Amino acid sequence: MATLMEDAPAGELQVVGGLSLSALEAISLGHKVSLLPIACDSPVIKYGVTIGLATRNIQPGEWVHLHNCRSLLDARSSTLDPHTGIPKVKLP
User: Fold this and answer.
1) Mean pLDDT of the chain
2) In the predicted model, what is the mean pLDDT of residues 66-71?
3) Which domains, and CATH codes, for the chain?
């Protein structure tokens, strides 16, 4: 996974180290993009640290965020809108 240093529109995306891949959707500055396939329920790793689990299969070039990754520390993370951070459902 890589963290973007600038906004990336859907299409070609340059990644550090000369590796390039096609962004499957627009991804904002500071957000994560998958460099390799990540299987559902597999760890999502950033800077060598597991930051969550994939909630579905994630393809290279895909934005990695609340819509396809859940926190191991906060059960509410999977209920948040990926764009606004507002909970999509109310928890009891």
Assistant:
1) 85
2) 88
3) 2-79 (2.30.130.110)
